[in-house]
Amino acid sequence: MIPIIDEGPLRENKRKVLHASLRPMLVWILMMVSVLAAQDVQEVELGRKSFEGRCAGCHGADGKGGDMAPAITLPLATHTNGQLMSLIRNGLPARGMPPSRIPGPEMARLLSFLRTIQSSGAAGHAGRELQLQTTDGKTIEGRVLGEGFDDMQLRTDDQRVLLLRRIDSRVREVTSELDWPTYNGDPGGNRYTSLTQINKDNVARLAMTWMFTLAGVGNLEVTPVVVGGIMYVTGPNECIALDAGSGRQIWHYKRPRSHAMSVGSGVNRGVAVANDRVFMETGDARIIALSRLTGELLWDTELADPRKNYGASSAPLPAGDLVISGVSGGEHGANGFVAAHEQKTGKEVWRFSTVPRPGEPGSETWEGKDIEHAGAPTWFTGSYDAELDTVYWPTGNPSEEYNGDHRKGDNLYSDCILALERKTGKLKWYYQFTPHDVWDWDATETPVLVDFPWRGQLRKLLLHADRNGFFYVFDRRDGTLLLAKPFIKHLTWASGIGPNGRPIKLPNQEPTPAGTKVCPSQDGATNWFSPSFNPATGLYYVQTFEKCSVYTKRDSGEWEPGKSYLGGSQRTAPDPEPKRILKAIDSSTGAIVWTLLEPGPANSWGGTLTTAGGLVIFGEEGGSLMVADAANGKPLWKFQTNQRWRASPMTYMFDDKQFISVAAGSNIIAFAIHD
To answer: Is 440 a catalytic residue?
Structure first.
């Protein structure tokens, strides 16, 4: 028989003994925590003194900027400690920040203090709480995001953003009547608006309403996007949300620029908005989704490995429940692809490779080693037809662009329009504009989708002015080529487009070691800057170049990560004198209806916007934002920005007022009719 022992008293005695033995240890731990906390406070305080002695004179005692240097509270959040140490020690001499050789222990204390003043990279700092009365008798509550004499932005507890205007002691919620949710305004890519508030009768009263400057970004290439009264603009790896009526910042998302082996161009052309998500590409070849109202990162998906020369720079394209994007890196031997991801999760749904793998259909058009590092990037935004449920995506040139010796053949699918089934990525049809391209003539010009009469019958058309100098019209249902006609004067590489749809190439036009003069130039007859189409006039408006290049061929050797893969070089020829000309092309015939010569060196890259108010709006060569009569090209208005254009204008309706907005230099500028 096993005796039954009551273990209760024993267990209690063990607990008391254990607690008695642990008590000194707990006291010691608490003492050490207190000592370490005191040390941390002391380190931060010493770091503060270091900051005040070395940095505050320029950046302000709180890091929020001074007379001699900008605020650093937000940028701090986007840099690692190692990056900050390098920045402090090396300085930014070109911007007036000298190097500072701070000893290691002092540097550690300085970094400890800097971390106490940094701001969030997403939603930013929320201000005081307010309860306000609206002009219609409602009570609203929220935290102040920004405010001025006339405007205020509040965030409510449910994370909505209220855009308000002051009326005496009350406020009024603004309205937002017509958005611009994607890079080209609508998925069809035609940069046309039905808005007529700004028109030929009143455009002379157009005036700047507000301006917002992005710090440290150079010449912006972004087209602003507006949804629900909030404007979204981008620089490299950053997105800023603005009140579209005042330009006041609502939130700012920023992430470090990658120091990996990325060949990203250091620009970003914008975002797309759908289902309260902001979709954006990053320079290290990722696609991300942010909350439209807070800037919070919702998901982050890698498109490709930047160490293999991939980057990304252009606005994604929403299509149904997917978001479509592409990659850059063609000049560095990265093989292109178009990818579709779920808008909700970022999960990849399909991927179409623009360079077939060896043995796949199309691979026979690559004879030689360069199929492994072939290019054909997909870096520019495509278009989408919801009725046909088809995505139309433009592709770039082959790698070793000036030397085709290691890639004999047509080199599919470089320099193409791809018609892809949205749900699966299956290829419906394609057209190659420049087979075996050795002149760097990407087909990355916007595919413009219009439903318009063709020979007396309404047809679904795709309009495309290509970098190679020809204007094309397709039936976008099946890819039937309806028209191909030159739209520039100086065109030497081909005499026309044959009945089979292929260019009729002229001899002695390929690059040589001694140099070959070819027209158009490497910049192309046009480029990625946006065209537009006006259904009232039937005209396609496009900025064009009349210039030529001297192309020189050489062997690039073996492909290497982090290095360009060009196969030669080019330079602009002095003859003919380079010119930039705005042209209006009859979409039914390809005839040039009118032209507007823009004085200057022909090196700006501003695109066009056209309106139901009878206007075409564009960045002209001399730095002005200009408005011309859409019917005849007569100049009607201009505003001098003194910037070299790298972006195209857009328009939206906010609080019963039509605005035109454009990126000029590092500024976002908005215009409206001056009452």
So the answer is: yes
